[in-house]
Automatic annotation (TrEMBL):
Stored PANTHER family: DEHYDROGENASES, SHORT CHAIN, ESTRADIOL 17-BETA-DEHYDROGENASE 8-RELATED
The organism's place on the tree of life at top rank: Bacteria
Name by which UniProt lists this protein: SDR family mycofactocin-dependent oxidoreductase
Transmembrane regions: none
Upper classification of the organism: Bacteria, Bacillati, Actinomycetota, Actinomycetes, Mycobacteriales
Family according to the record: Belongs to the short-chain dehydrogenases/reductases (SDR) family.
Keywords assigned: NAD, Oxidoreductase
NCBIfam families per the UniProt record, alphabetical: PRK12826.1-3, SDR_subfam_1
GO MF annotation list: oxidoreductase activity
Length: 277
């Protein structure tokens, strides 16, 4: 049975685990080949364990299990030249590029590290500049498609609502995360406007808390325990179970697929009402 992305190729950052892995496997199940990257290392300002090379290898195994091809490499999205090389190598092997899912991100708003100025710098470098570098690295291949393509940026509900809600919850990490996720909307609208004539659609998705290691970890638990007002501010309006990564994948499929062919420049909240006034 044909999948909705048969013959297509998707480039996904932060693909070693969590949302990125789910996106990669689901795209493969729908017929796409995958170019996947992840840092596979730790950033000092991040208090929870980040993905490893073993995690990325597991993503490769799961994609190949579907029968699709994958080109995977370790890459820091802050390294523009390395991103260019990975995309070029992937396109050389897989033949084309149709979709970009700029998913890589960090949450340096937990742990003692959140109080260091480096947490602000790293949040901007990874979550904002890394998105811009990802898209720029992919553009030459996307522009070769006569039928265009689609870019989806993973932002956050923090693009509409500050992570810090009281004086006691402010930190450099929370400020950097909030600023970066707000900035991603500007990057999205910049590309949506400028790439429309090339039939490349650009949108962003804005999840609330997703059940991945970025959220479910000891440092987050400690922060909520120490600052219950922080946890209370993250509660959505709808009474829903914790959001699993496949919910975000569904939204990305909508934006990349035929159903979303008239959508560009959209910042799509996916937060069970968290950001409702």
């Amino acid at each position: 049975m044909a999948g909705q992305f048969d013959g297509k190729v998707v480039f996904i950052t932060g693909a070693a685990r969590g949302q990125g892995r789910t996106h990669a496997v689901r795209f493969a199940e729908e017929g796409a080949d995958v170019i996947a990257v992840d840092l596979c290392g730790q950033i000092d300002s991040v208090a929870y364990p980040m993905a490893s090379r073993d995690d990325l290898d597991e993503t490769v195994r799961l994609v190949e299990k579907t029968g699709r091809r994958i080109v995977a490499g370790q890459c820091d999205v802050r390294d523009y030249e390395r991103l260019q090389d990975v995309v070029a190598n992937g396109v050389a092997e897989l033949g084309r590029l149709d979709y970009v899912v700029a998913n890589a991100g960090i949450f340096p708003a937990v742990g003692q590290q959140r109080l260091d100025i480096s947490a602000f710098v790293d949040a901007i470098d990874v979550n904002l500049k890394g998105v811009y570098f990802t898209i720029e690295a992919a553009l030459p291949a996307l522009l070769r498609n006569d039928d265009g393509g689609a870019i989806v940026i993973t932002s956050s509900a923090a693009a509409f609502k500050s992570v810090s809600t009281t004086f006691d919850t402010i930190s450099h990490g929370a400020a950097g995360y909030t600023a970066a996720k707000h900035g991603v909307i500007g990057v999205m609208r910049h590309y949506a406007t400028s790439l429309a004539e090339k039939n490349i659609r650009v949108n962003s998705v804005h999840p609330g808390g997703v059940a991945t290691p970025m959220i479910i970890n000891e440092a987050m638990g400690q922060l909520i325990g120490d600052q219950p007002e922080f946890g209370a501010a993250q509660q959505p309006k709808l009474s829903m179970p914790p959001m699993e990564p496949d919910v975000v994948t569904d939204a990305i499929f909508y934006l990349c697929g035929a159903s979303g062919r008239y959508l560009t420049g959209v910042a799509l909240p996916l937060d069970a009402g968290l950001t409702l006034k």
